[in-house]
UniProtKB/TrEMBL annotation:
GO biological process, one term: carbohydrate metabolic process
Protein name: Glycosyl hydrolase, family 92
Presence of keyword RNA-binding: no
Region described as Disordered: spans on this chain: 304-326
One Gene Ontology MF term: peptide-N4-(N-acetyl-beta-glucosaminyl)asparagine amidase activity
Length: 326
């Protein structure tokens, strides 16, 4: 009985009258934040799916596995973006993926929020049109010129907080530079995370590239300078990037010591050539929480150009709920 109550409480936390289980999304007629809310509910439902698996409740797990895929229902395959959708199933026609206001999102646009499916990266990759399109979209996000009209009247976004169209001051975007780990070009995570640190965290009165809501800007920095980040909380994985400093020493909650070494790391030597953990070669692009708590010595060998062979095997990639849309 207690277990049933527990799951009912969890489900109640993410219930909204505007959400239609029959449709699998919030219709645009019902709310101004229909797309971002539907995406966030899908992730919330995935966490309940994970909880149900651990509790051994197969019925609840099956139900919430299906609900975790509801993000698919707000993707317009014609343009590859998450987009507002009406009750009749049609998508908003005059849709602007760069616009923050009036497009179905809260404090963000579709260019950033379309990547907000941390629990099923391969699934979102397929919806966008496959890995080639996904990579192009990631590159373009960081490299584009965002016209001033899209942020000049936004109280939360200034030009200083932008890298291309990527908005580091908005928390739902923070996992995006780590998404390269699921692709054939994982070294781009190493490039962009260092760019973000250099540009968004400066020793200046206006040196923070966003509002540190609940400490998230600081949390991203602390994780990223150590060389890893929890892209999908609810898994036991941290996706690896590259350390920012040549040496870090951590005393872990269980008393173990973790040393992270990256001799010679710099803005020019930002690419990971290899990683050893306690002297053993480590090719995975993620580290588990259990392995993190063991402590020991992580030694990154750094270089001026990427090692394009590292992390390419499927078994070295981080978690994804599915292997894509089949």
């Amino acid at each position: 009985m207690l277990r049933k109550i527990h799951f009912c409480l969890l489900a109640g936390l993410i219930f909204t009258p505007a959400f239609s289980q029959q449709l699998g999304y919030i219709p645009f007629e019902k709310s101004s934040t229909v797309v971002s809310s539907t995406l966030e509910f899908a992730y919330d439902d995935w966490t309940i799916y994970q909880t149900a698996l651990r509790a051994g409740n197969e019925e609840i797990a099956k139900q919430y596995y299906a609900r975790a895929l509801n993000y698919r229902n707000v993707f317009d395959k014609k343009n590859g973006f998450a987009c507002p959708r009406y009750t009749d199933g049609s998508f908003k026609k005059d849709f602007d993926p760069l616009q923050t206001h009036g497009e179905g999102f809260i404090e963000g646009n579709s260019w950033n929020f379309s990547f907000h499916v941390p629990h099923d990266v391969y699934g979102i990759m397929d919806l966008m049109g496959g890995e080639k399109v996904f990579l192009t979209r990631l590159d373009e996000l960081f490299e584009m010129h965002l016209p001033k009209k899209y942020y000049e009247k936004n109280e939360d976004i200034t030009e200083e907080g932008l890298i291309g169209g990527y908005v580091h001051g908005n928390e739902p975007s923070h996992h995006i530079p780590y998404l390269y780990a699921w692709t054939s070009q994982p070294w781009k995570t190493q490039f962009w995370t260092r760019e973000i640190i250099d540009r968004m965290y400066r020793n200046d009165i206006n040196g923070l590239g966003g509002n540190d809501d609940c400490g998230q800007m600081s949390a991203w920095y602390m994780f990223t300078v150590m060389g890893f980040y929890p892209v999908c909380p609810g898994t036991d994985q941290y996706v690896l990037g590259a350390p920012y400093f040549p040496y870090l020493k951590l005393r872990l909650p269980n008393g173990n010591i973790l040393e992270i070494k990256a001799e010679g790391v710099s803005d020019t030597r930002r690419y990971v050539q290899s990683l050893t953990i306690n002297g053993k070669k480590y090719d995975k692009l993620y580290i588990t929480h259990a392995d993190l708590l063991k402590g020991g010595v992580w030694e990154f060998k750094m270089g001026t150009s990427p090692n394009k062979k590292r992390g390419q095997k499927a078994e070295n990639k981080p978690y994804s709920l599915t292997n894509g849309i089949k």
